[in-house]
């Protein structure tokens, strides 16, 4: 049961820690958004999303494996249809048209596509397991049309950050399926060419690269966010300025509760807090790795690798942008940053991993035996024992 409890513990720790940091980092933004009426509006929304995500995780953890095989294509289809609607009726945020407003609720369909590409990849490659030595069987139907349609729908919304995450997910799925490494070059060339076109055709993205390369250091222009992110980390020093005591969140650092929440973590909690976040993601990667290496089910191995790649690569891209190891791309820190669609979908994906972990030999039996073990423990207490004998 080690993998199961490790997944539960790390997920709970990241979500709770994320709620604490969102409360700290978003208070000033909430006051600005509500004209001073409330400092808790963003936190309350995030807490509601976390509750919905917890329910989704619990439901997902109880579904059998056959359910995920049956739901793979419907999940991807829903994600693609919603993403197409985004292109016509969606809302643009920072130049990316990737949001769909449904009344008071804002949905990001690309998060659903991430999960859909993982599950459909696991289903298709499992069925073609005996033919994966042939490049044609890898291309059709997974790369074309499934991946092409899913990634293409997001690319039309100009969301380069999500496109990179989707590319990483596909690479993780193919790698876990045992695809020869030389084939990655054939599949990667058009993807890299597309990413370069995205960058070179956008003045906004080119300016971000100028900032990353040090050619643009204008603190009042494009370089403002990454510069103040590093200011926050520098102010935190070894031990931080204290929880809730960030200075950069007072209108200096944009998106302190979202893309740059790691900068606030470093400022308020210092090096121990930053390393603690890295340790939690490392523990999550370890739990996923245990699932991949311990299972004999090809579907479980591929799907777990895809979800692990999704969460860990997204965390690397987010943290790398904050510490200037990578250019600012605009992806949230999984389970920690503010954002409903990302939080709910990621927790749902982790619920799938919990359902896989329950299928490990002896895990389901041990979990089902827990209530009887608790009753036996309570039976040794004098008061409980007497009541049980009186009832009998």
Automatic annotation (TrEMBL):
Coiled-coil ranges per UniProt: none
Residues that span the membrane, as ranges: 7-31, 37-59, 71-93, 105-125, 132-154, 160-177, 184-203, 260-286, 298-323, 335-357
Annotated localization: Cell membrane
Pathway: Cell wall biogenesis; peptidoglycan biosynthesis
Keywords for this protein: Cell cycle, Cell division, Cell membrane, Cell shape, Cell wall biogenesis/degradation, Glycosyltransferase, Membrane, Peptidoglycan synthesis, Transferase, Transmembrane, Transmembrane helix
EC number assigned by the record: 2.4.99.28
Keyword Cell membrane assigned: yes
Topology in membrane: Multi-pass membrane protein
Catalyzed reactions: [GlcNAc-(1->4)-Mur2Ac(oyl-L-Ala-gamma-D-Glu-L-Lys-D-Ala-D-Ala)](n)-di-trans,octa-cis-undecaprenyl diphosphate + beta-D-GlcNAc-(1->4)-Mur2Ac(oyl-L-Ala-gamma-D-Glu-L-Lys-D-Ala-D-Ala)-di-trans,octa-cis-undecaprenyl diphosphate = [GlcNAc-(1->4)-Mur2Ac(oyl-L-Ala-gamma-D-Glu-L-Lys-D-Ala-D-Ala)](n+1)-di-trans,octa-cis-undecaprenyl diphosphate + di-trans,octa-cis-undecaprenyl diphosphate + H(+)
Function: Peptidoglycan polymerase that is essential for cell division.
Family assignment from sequence similarity: Belongs to the SEDS family. FtsW subfamily.
Name of this protein: Probable peptidoglycan glycosyltransferase FtsW
């Amino acid at each position: 049961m080690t993998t199961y409890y490790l997944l539960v513990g790390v997920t709970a720790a990241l979500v709770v820690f994320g709620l604490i940091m969102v409360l700290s980092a978003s208070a000033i933004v909430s006051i600005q958004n509500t004209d001073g009426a409330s400092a808790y509006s963003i936190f309350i929304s995030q807490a509601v999303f976390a509750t919905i995500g917890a329910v989704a995780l619990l439901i997902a953890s109880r579904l059998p494996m056959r359910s995920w095989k049956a739901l793979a294509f419907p999940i991807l289809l829903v994600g693609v249809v919603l993403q197409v609607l985004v292109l016509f009726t969606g809302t643009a945020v920072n130049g990316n048209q990737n949001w769909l407003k449904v009344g008071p609720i804002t949905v990001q369909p690309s998060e659903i596509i991430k999960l859909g590409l993982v599950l459909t990849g696991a289903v298709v490659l499992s069925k073609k397991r005996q033919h994966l030595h042939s490049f044609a069987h890898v291309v059709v139907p997974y790369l074309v049309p499934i991946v092409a349609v899913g990634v293409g729908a997001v690319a039309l919304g100009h969301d380069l950050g999500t496109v990179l995450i989707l590319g990483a997910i596909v690479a993780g799925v193919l790698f876990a399926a045992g695809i020869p490494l030389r084939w990655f070059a054939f599949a990667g060339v058009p993807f890299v060419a597309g990413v370069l076109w995205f960058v070179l055709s956008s003045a906004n993205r080119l300016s971000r690269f100028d900032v990353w390369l040090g050619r643009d250091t204008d603190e009042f222009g494009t370089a403002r966010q990454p510069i103040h992110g590093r200011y926050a980390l520098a102010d935190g020093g070894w031990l931080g300025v204290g929880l809730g005591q960030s200075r950069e969140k007072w209108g200096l650092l944009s998106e302190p509760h979202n893309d740059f929440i790691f900068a606030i973590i470093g400022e308020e909690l210092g090096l121990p807090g930053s390393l603690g976040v890295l340790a939690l993601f490392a523990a999550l990667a370890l739990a996923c790795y245990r699932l991949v290496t311990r299972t004999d089910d090809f579907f479980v191995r591929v799907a777990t690798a895809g979800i692990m790649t999704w969460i860990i690569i997204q965390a690397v891209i987010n943290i790398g942008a904050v510490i200037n190891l990578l250019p600012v791309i605009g992806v949230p820190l999984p389970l920690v940053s503010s954002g409903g669609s990302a939080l709910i979908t990621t927790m749902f994906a982790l619920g799938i991993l919990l359902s896989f972990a329950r299928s490990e030999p002896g895990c389901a039996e041990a979990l089902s035996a827990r209530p009887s073990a608790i009753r036996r423990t309570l039976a040794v207490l004098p008061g409980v024992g007497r009541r049980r004998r009186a009832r009998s």
